[in-house]
Amino acid sequence: MKRKTKRLLARLLALVMVLSLCEITLGQSTPVKAAVTLQNPTTDGNGVTTWDCIYFGNYYQSNSSTKEPIKWRVLSVNGNDAFLLADKNLDDKLYNKEHTSVTWATCTLRTWLNDKFLNEAFTPEEQDKILITYVSADENPRFDVYQGASTQDKIFILSINEAEKYFNSPKERLCEPTDYVLAKRPYISNVDGVNSCHWWLRTHGKFDGSSTYVTSTGYTYELGDGVTADQYCIRPAMWISCT
Fold this sequence. Notes:
15 strands
């Protein structure tokens, strides 16, 4: 009996430590006041990066009927604001529903993220914590192509420049799909025992009607693929206020 009690207390302590990273809401729960400050990622002498992580919002992960807390990596901290990226790919979507010349500003994926996903994953109280972010139309580092207009969004996806800025290597860019996504059969690679999949980036590819992505082996692909390709996953990003 004493062993079970100790194990239960240890689990509760671990949960409190995670929730105490930031003032967030977990589903319909009461906001938890910060006990420690979120930190920027750290890289050791071997080039291995460690991220703070928090749980915020709820979305389908184990299956298509039950929502579960979403785990986010903290990519950057600016005062009381934190830049978050989903720890796993949360869905499998087309960049645009029609094969036509689009940019991040005009694609249907942007609309889906800032409407259906926003309302599916976050309560009104949680949405108030998500900041409206200036999302730049970053250049493609390899091809001189039009990137469209910059936007202001609550939810977005990374550009090539950001994917290379916040991750030091292809291995760090590997991203697993949730079981919910895996059931949709995206393209999967197994790298060192990790099931990883392609995930869209918002930077325009070389050709009209294309967008760039991170490959299932962790490399950024500047040439891009057609915006109606159906094997790419979604790894949302956002800035939140921790006050």
